[in-house]
Write a structure and sequence with these properties.
2 copies of one chain form a homodimer. The first copy, chain A, is mostly helical. Chain A has 10 helices and 3 strands. The first copy, chain A, has 2 domains: about 60 residues, Arc Repressor Mutant, subunit A, CATH 1.10.10.10; about 140 residues, Four Helix Bundle (Hemerythrin (Met), subunit A), CATH 1.20.120. The structure holds a DNA duplex.
Chain lengths: ~240, ~240
DNA sequence: GAAAGTATAATTGTATACATTATGGCAATT
DNA sequence: AATTGCCATAATGTATACAATTATACTTTC
């Protein structure tokens, strides 16, 4: 059987399959980044041609990127009337938080189970927490936000649920934007590090009730930070 | 202020804004339908040009539809190597079920809260259940599956969480495919009707613990039905 | 003077054409 | 005999061109 034969072929270890990032992907990231950095404001109209020109590419990959973003809820697209960046009002944030809590619990439980099966499974999480610790001194806000997302992405990955991870792709983009839009209030870097370290410990402990509570508390902060800016909005 | 003036303009009530379904959307639906009906098998390679030809359109809208399906996890796309329909193995089904339970709980709680605020909120759910009742006699398997999905879509809509509803769009497509692929074992139509009616009653009752349990039981059936076929798979 | 009609510009939607990349077969080389 | 290099083919990725739709400004009409 050819299949069996194929599995016997020695596969080079230690090399990850490289995959070139396509223009649509890059375009989607660029748009999200633009929103997160404030270059494009929530609710603002987005014109394909202008985006394409700014990115130095044609409209086609831009459109594909926008379609994906629409599926993930970061832009709304009305037929023949174009795209508009989603608004991130207080209600939307609460909804996002609810969804995230529900799924993050699942992820944490999955990661917890994976750890019980194989204590090495949470290695990536420790790595991220380690990087966080190194960042506490020099307070790089952007880098810390990235590590925050990276930690949770790792958590959802360790859980080993493909569908879950796919939903995280959408959710994390929302969070990325929210992190970007959040007020400049200095975040408590030591606190962020401590929180994630603690969450990781609880995951490895595997007490379900404690896990649920930890997750709930961990995510609540999100809404907090953003609330100030939102109340400033006149409209 | 122009804004205030605008809000005073009487808006015609009772008419839904009509939006033409775009070719990419139709293409995506067509592909999902083709998988659900068995015309395209899970894991099978999908060539854009052939799809376009079959649908009588060009490749561009097909590509956009495929990108959305990829974001929703129904196809996997490898750069320069094309698309492949996802496989729905037992593990994937379990993962899907876990995610669905977690989110469906959230939806049910939201719907329950909406009902407490306004008893009219669950009206659409009663409608669907009514249609189910009418279908019990003449056992139209396809129609019943549609009502099943329609019920849950209504549930998630009533919950009033946009993000949640967006995720449902992805999940429901998976379920649609699974329903289609499921073995021809006659489903218990009366049972399906009864289950949904009961779920609705529990939602309106609003007992959280009972709700969680009900959801869990309600969704477990999914894996069940498919398990047989999956075990037949040789590979 | 407000509503409806009309022409024009801007933008999106789709199709076609071209460029790039992967795949499979076959010869050449070691 | 196995690996490498090369070529032909097929499919994807991207750009450009055109068609269809919407928005805007202006005119017309009652």
């Amino acid at each position: 059987m050819a299949i069996i034969e194929a599995t016997l072929v020695p596969v080079q270890e230690g090399v990850a399959p490289l995959r070139p990032r396509s223009l649509p992907d890059q375009a989607a990231d660029a748009i999200v980044q633009a929103v997160a950095s404030g270059a494009i404001r929530p609710g603002e109209r987005v014109v394909e041609q202008k985006l394409a020109a700014a990115l130095g590419i044609s409209r086609v990959p831009v459109r594909e990127g926008l379609r994906v973003l629409a599926a993930q809820g970061l832009v709304t697209v009305t037929p023949h009337r174009g795209c508009r960046v989603a608004e991130f009002d207080e209600q939307g944030l609460r909804q996002l938080k609810d969804v995230r809590v529900a799924l993050e619990r699942l992820a944490a439980r999955g990661a917890s189970a994976a750890y019980r099966t194989n204590p090495q499974a949470t290695r990536p999480l420790h790595d991220v927490v380690g990087q966080m610790a190194a960042l506490v001194e020099r307070g790089d806000r952007f880098a810390m936000s990235r590590l925050d997302l990276q930690f949770h992405r790792a958590l959802w990955t360790v859980a080993g649920n493909d569908m879950l991870l796919r939903l995280w792709e959408a959710i994390s983009r929302h969070i990325l934007v929210i992190f970007g839009l959040e007020t400049e209030t200095e975040r408590d870097f030591a606190g962020i590090y401590r929180q994630h370290a603690h969450l990781l410990a609880v995951v490895e402990a595997g007490e379900l009730a404690a896990l649920d509570e930890e997750i709930e508390g961990h995510i609540k902060q999100l809404r907090h930070m953003y609330a100030d800016q939102d109340s400033q909005k006149t409209r």
